[in-house]
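Record now logged for everyone:
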Amino acid sequence: MSSRSRTDAALVGGAALILLVSACHQHDAEMARAAPERPGVITSALLPGEPNSLVTDDQRALPYYDNAEAVTTGMKLFKAYNCSGCHSSGGGGMGPDLMDDVWIYGGRLAQIHQTLVEGRPNGMPSWGGKLPDEQLWQLSAYVRSLSLPATIAANTGNTPGQRPAPVPKEADAHNGWAPPPGTTNDYTTTTAGPK
């Protein structure tokens, strides 16, 4: 092979490499533009000794506050998806009680939504990607409404949660979690083990 044909081959190979690399970068740029926005993770004060929550406000929750229709639809979905199978119409059973003020993973609307999307250990399935997000927000609104004083006051008979109240924005003016009543750990001090 002559030196000229080697030079021509090197130029063709170099040009092909440049085209390939630029096509990869263009593909990456297109993929970056097509990627959906992903909201940040909502964390609740579940770590012992954490003085306050790292909860962020999720703007997607706003349409579901003071929204009686969303809560009523959430109640219908709660029945249709057999959530009562574990939560017994909100009163607890195999799953936690939803009508008290004890929230293991946070009781704010956005935290409940996150629990439905991600699931939780020991039984709570992940519904993210299986149910439309709007339904998950409606279910969250209903679940949050179950512990509201207005909903509890309206309950009569053996089937609680049948007259759910809309969730006011003020109901979520807290960090979403506190130690359960009667706990012996105040979650603010550390103890030393045996020496």
Observations:
- DSSP finds six helices and no strands in the chain.
- Helices lie at 3-34, 68-80, 84-87, 109-118, 133-145, 149-154.
- The radius of gyration is 26 Å.
- Residues 79 and 89 are 8 Å apart (CA to CA).
